[in-house]
């Protein structure tokens, strides 16, 4: 299998080897070995559950430092709409957007604006005949990876349109190149991200050959710097371009509500998403045309790289949405809308769950797995470093673990061994055996 | 069936409706681990799910046996329920005898048997009124 890149990473010093993350991971991608959590790269979908759950903050996502912008002659910030929910509402959206420039960015372009363009394209797609319904939104990269790993039969249902982040990057970059007469490669576009999985999709895009985004800065990292800039600098220009339709994307059902259909289902939280994908796989959602599935509880506002509590942020974002609605920014904007948002690449099935490439060998391993699993205590305690007894059984047949990794199995073995020792201890070699009449015994043998 | 075969057995316990679909769901997981192609898994899982739900709704549960071979998956769902009086009628889309209580849960849309037929390559139904029903579904495993 090709080397699989993902952005969620471990800080070894902080990790204590507890079982919190292994139990939480939706793809069973983490094991504890030598007191440290190890991520099985090809299974990780970058959902960020482990980042949220780790009590020692040992999990993080690889993003770019704010200083990375200095590598480019010209830089553009493309903030995710969830950014607006991070600050108190005394800071207007325009004030937040204006704060980027004194920090060293040359331009700002709202991803929310690009989201509206994607909504437009999705509306068109929904009207097409012969599409596989329900369509599943590709806005959440962790969900797309989840489908690749666990729900391959749903790959055809995924909306094959560029994400708002990609569309924003493309529009902003081309426009700057044209207006400022700068070569494309000297322009750095930076996504201001609530999301770990977005960092991955920039490094390894699934829809396009190469991402137009040059770096991903986490909201956590830029939060204070941006706040300082907001407090120090006046609002100089009107940078608001998106209307309520685009800003709403940060909320669950925000994307769906722009589609003009009631036949949508919006689900958030990775474990809820899995339940819904199971339903779709079983053909149980025949009356639904569109599924918006978001890995984080609370949608992008609940992203692992955000600062504010998702529910507080939701209220604040609501006010920005209302303000945008009252302002009534018209949709007739000056930029040329790219009509071709369709992916040039494709997403593939990543069969990481399969036990062997050879069916007969896989069957033998599955049988062995079941047998081992039956012998395990079924407590799913995690002390072996695997998330469940079944996962340990799987690791054993894959050759990555031993039955004695289970502390109960080990205890059983020790007890058996102790019993054997007691039994052996009672035995004596015949030459030293002083019990009974040895003469009698010799006679009997004759 | 020739060569290696994996046999699975499930009891379909009709006491808790939230457990409906457990047998087909765990079968699906195993088929995924075997690396069988997604389309074949989908066919087998839906066919089995429908049969399992039927046993749940109409027959107060039953038994399911799955045989996974290198060339085919054979799913047998057996119950001791009321049996099907008119099989031809039951095979029609939209026909259902499910009680209202069940329909309110979104089941009993009359797609059970038609879906079993659609998603399996071979469907065999043995039914006797008052005795029960046995459904045997075969899905062929083709590589690729």
Could you describe the 3D structure shown?
- The complex is a heterodimer of chains A (446) and B (144).
- Chain A is α/β, with parallel strands linked by helices.
- Helices cover 38% and strands 10% of the residues of chain A.
- Chain A has 15 helices and eleven strands.
- Chain A has a four-stranded parallel β-sheet.
- In chain A, helix 4 crosses helix 6 and helix 12 (359-375) packs across helix 13 (389-397).
- The relative contact order of chain A is 0.14.
- Chain B has a single domain, classed as Heat Shock Protein 90.
- Chain B contains five helices and five strands.
- A five-stranded antiparallel β-sheet of chain B has the order 1-2-3-5-4, covered by helices on one side.
CATH superfamily of chain B: Histidine kinase-like ATPase, C-terminal domain
- Whole-number average pLDDT of chain A? 90
| Assembly context of the chains | heterodimer
Structural class of chain A: alpha/beta
The average pLDDT value of chain B, as a whole number, equals 87
What order do the strands of the largest sheet of chain B run in, or round the barrel if closed? 1-2-3-5-4
How are the SSEs placed, and which strands pair?
The complex is a heterodimer of chains A (446) and B (144).
Chain A: E1 8-10, H1 20-24, E2 30-33, E3 36-39, H2 49-53, E4 59-61, E5 74-79, H3 93-98, E6 107-108, H4 111-127, E7 135-136, H5 141-150, H6 164-180, E8 187-193, H7 196-203, E9 215-218, H8 219-232, H9 244-247, E10 264-268, H10 270-281, E11 290-294, H11 310-327, H12 359-375, H13 389-397, H14 407-426, H15 438-445
Parallel strand pairs in A: 5-6, 5-8, 7-11, 8-9, 10-11
Antiparallel strand pairs in A: 1-4, 2-3
Helix pairs in contact in A: 4-6, 12-13
Chain B: E1 5-13, H1 22-33, H2 38-59, E2 61-69, E3 72-79, H3 87-90, H4 100-103, H5 112-119, E4 122-128, E5 132-140
Antiparallel strand pairs in B: 1-2, 2-3, 3-5, 4-5
What is this entry, summarized?
The complex is a heterodimer of chains A (446) and B (144). Chain A is α/β, with parallel strands linked by helices. Chain A has helices at residues 20-24, 49-53, 93-98, 111-127, 141-150, 164-180, 196-203, 219-232, 244-247, 270-281, 310-327, 359-375, 389-397, 407-426, 438-445, and strands spanning 8-10, 30-33, 36-39, 59-61, 74-79, 107-108, 135-136, 187-193, 215-218, 264-268, 290-294.
């Amino acid at each position: 299998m090709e080397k699989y890149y993902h952005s969620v990473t471990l800080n070894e010093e902080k990790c204590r080897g507890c079982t919190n993350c292994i139990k939480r991971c939706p793809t069973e991608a983490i094991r504890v070995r030598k007191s440290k959590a190890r991520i099985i790269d090809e299974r990780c979908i970058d959902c960020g559950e482990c980042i949220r759950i780790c009590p020692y903050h040992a999990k993080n996502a690889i993003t770019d430092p704010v200083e990375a912008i200095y590598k480019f002659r010209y830089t553009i910030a493309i903030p995710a709409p969830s950014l607006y929910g991070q600050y108190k509402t005394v800071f207007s959206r325009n004030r937040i957007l204006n704060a980027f420039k004194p920090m060293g960015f040359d331009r700002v372009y709202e991803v929310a604006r690009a989201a509206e363009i994607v909504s437009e394209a999705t509306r068109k797609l929904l009207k097409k005949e012969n599409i596989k319904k329900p369509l599943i939104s590709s806005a959440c990269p962790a969900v797309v990876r989840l489908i690749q790993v666990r729900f391959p039969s749903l790959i055809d249902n995924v909306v094959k349109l560029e994400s708002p982040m990609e569309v924003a990057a493309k529009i902003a970059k081309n426009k700057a190149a044209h207006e400022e007469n700068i070569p494309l490669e000297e322009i750095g576009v930076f996504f201001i991200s609530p999301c770990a999985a977005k960092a991955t999709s920039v490094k390894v895009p699934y829809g396009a050959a190469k991402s137009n985004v040059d770096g991903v800065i986490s909201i956590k990292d830029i939060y204070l710097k941006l706040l300082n800039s907001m407090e120090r600098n006046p609002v100089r220009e009107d940078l608001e371009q998106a209307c309520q339709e685009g800003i709403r994307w940060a909320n669950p059902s925000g994307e769906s509500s722009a589609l003009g259909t009631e036949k949508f289902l919006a689900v958030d939280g990775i474990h809820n998403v899995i339940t819904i994908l199971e339903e779709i796989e079983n053909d149980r959602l025949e009356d639904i045309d569109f599924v918006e599935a978001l890995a984080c509880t609370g949608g992008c506002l609940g992203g692992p790289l955000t600062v504010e509590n998702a529910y507080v942020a939701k209220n604040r974002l609501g006010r920005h949405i209302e303000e945008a609605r009252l302002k009534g920014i018209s949709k007739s904007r000056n930029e040329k809308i790219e009509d071709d948002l369709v992916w040039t690449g494709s997403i593939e099935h990543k069969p990481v769950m399969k036990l062997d490439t050879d069916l007969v060998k896989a069957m033998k391993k599955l049988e062995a797995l079941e047998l081992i699993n039956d012998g395990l205590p079924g407590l799913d305690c995690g002390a072996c470093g695997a998330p469940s007894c079944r996962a340990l059984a799987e690791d054993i047949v894959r050759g990555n673990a031993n039955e004695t990794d289970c502390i109960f199995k080990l205890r059983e073995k020790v007890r058996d061994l102790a019993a054997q020792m007691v039994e052996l201890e009672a035995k004596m070699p015949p030459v030293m055996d002083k019990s009974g009449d040895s003469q009698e015994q010799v006679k009997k043998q004759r | 069936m020739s060569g290696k075969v994996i046999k699975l057995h499930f009891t379909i316990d009709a006491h808790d409706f939230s457990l409906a679909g457990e047998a087909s769901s765990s079968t699906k997981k195993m088929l995924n681990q075997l690396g069988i192609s997604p389309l074949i898994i989908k066919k087998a899982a839906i066919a089995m799910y429908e049969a399992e739900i039927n046993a749940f709704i109409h027959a107060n549960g039953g038994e399911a046996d799955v045989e996974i071979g290198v060339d085919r998956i054979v799913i047998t769902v057996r119950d001791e329920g009321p049996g099907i009086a008119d099989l031809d009628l039951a095979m029609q889309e939209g026909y259902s005898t499910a009680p209202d209580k069940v329909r309110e849960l979104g089941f009993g849309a009359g797609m059970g048997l038609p879906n079993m037929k659609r998603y399996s390559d071979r469907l065999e139904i043995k039914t006797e009124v008052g005795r029960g029903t046995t459904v045997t579904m075969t899905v062929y495993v083709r590589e690729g």
